[in-house]
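Dear support,

Our group has been running a series of protein-ligand predictions, and this particular one with LP7C6HRI is the one our PI (initials K.S.) wants archived with full inputs and outputs. We had some confusion internally about which version of the output was final, so please treat the block below as the authoritative record. The input we submitted was:
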Amino acid sequence: MITTDRMAAVDANAAALGVPQKQLMESSGNAVARAVRDLVDPGSRIAIVAGRGNNGGDALVAARFLDEFDTHTLLLGRAETISTDIARENWDALDEAKYDVEEVQDSRAIGLGDPDLVVDAMLGTGISGDLREPEATAAREMNESDATVLSVDVPSGVDADTGEGGAGAVEADHVVTFHDSKPGLDSLDADVRVEDIGIPAAAERFVGPGDLAVETDPRARKGDSGRVMVIGGGPYTGAPALAAQSSLRAGADLAFVSIPERVFDPIAGYAEDLIVQPYDAPRLGPDQVDDLLDTATRHDDIVVLGPGLGTADETLDAVAEFLSGFDGRAVVDADALSVVPEVDTDATLVCTPNRHELAEMGGPDVDDLAAHADEIEAFAADLGHIVLAKAKDDVISNGKRTRISRVGTPGMTVGGTGDLLAGITAAQLGTREAFDAACVAPYVNGRAAEALDRGSGLMASDLLDAIPEAMRVDR
Ligand SMILES: NC(=O)C1=CN([C@@H]2O[C@H](COP(=O)(O)OP(=O)(O)OC[C@H]3O[C@@H](n4cnc5c(N)ncnc54)[C@H](O)[C@@H]3O)[C@@H](O)[C@H]2O)[C@H](O)CC1
Ligand SMILES: [K+]
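Confirmed final output from the archive:
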């Protein structure tokens, strides 16, 4: 089962892997033709009704595979208004090769004839709202006709994610959908077949450029990427500052750093963009927890817990107490990680262990994390939280789904890149579902390093400037 947004991401990832959409359209069209052949005998009358988007494009491809039928293709609208290059190229091919095609300029002129089968390729995943003209009239004609109706990808007018049909949606007898079934097809009174269109498994497994495009959290609004609160520092000062700064570079609106008073000066001195909130204690301890919980909960802060905190008993007690009282979103990193397996929390956690921290938490003790992705998935299921395990290839799992981010450079083994990752993850949690945020963050971090291309001598702070560019969708 795949949603429209995920499908678009996988599509773009496939293109980045060298399988462009036009090739997928060729496979889709071929699959449509196979479905036609399974439903009617050679010589039967077929009416193809194509819209001006890629859903129509699929059927325009299919027309070339249906020579043994009496096929008539109607394009709803003028060819110049076809909305994508690949669909238009497939129209032009039919036109040049003298297939039986017709541009329908006016909804009153729609005549399906008396076909045995209608291919409904008006609208697929690009639909929004009720059917407009001329699609509405064409849908009515299809629904009133005696012909078998085969819909391409999704019955036109039906929302592929929800199954909701706008007024006048096509009532399909059969649906041929691509790659994976869609949630909205489940509730239909139609026979649904899922066809493989040659999308490489890697397009789903590996985080790619398509993943950047999709913002998946319904709470997300433009310019509302949330407040990040880094609870860290004390023994160390650089780590919390790097995490907070990277969260800003990755789109957070405000970054707070909660630290012991005695390290206020250095941390406040690193960057004027950070809001430094000191507490009166030499290090984090249980006395600070009520205040921190109160602030984080009141502002719906996305918390980063761990960078530079150290391993003092009272600090780890405070971490455990914070997590058991917290029900928001948090990234847990570094020294705070050891507490997670013991703690009972309602929070949504993304845990970001390196190889050693993963083993100490009870996960697999291995060098090549990606080769042991199944064990990391089992560990995440057991832990009940999202695990973003950091290595050359990062493994991200929520216990059910597991993906790999394989971007980055050897120079990233330098100290501080993990702090950056924690901050980027927190910012991503403001606009995406937690698992998607955990997948995109290491991809952004790795792309930033690739863009700098600095080899050895890279410092984590160098990467800060490269993060915004690495998040751009159109790179
Ligand atoms: N990997 C894949 O999934 C592939 C899918 N393919 C097919 O492409 C379509 C999606 O194509 P897209 O161009 O994004 O959108 P549509 O063709 O569904 O529609 C766009 C078209 O429709 C107009 N429109 C929108 N809402 C309405 C409305 N209510 N009434 C009338 N018209 C409307 C809009 O303005 C556009 O012009 C997918 O379903 C698959 O079939 C690829 O072929 C291969 C890869
Ligand atoms: K359709």
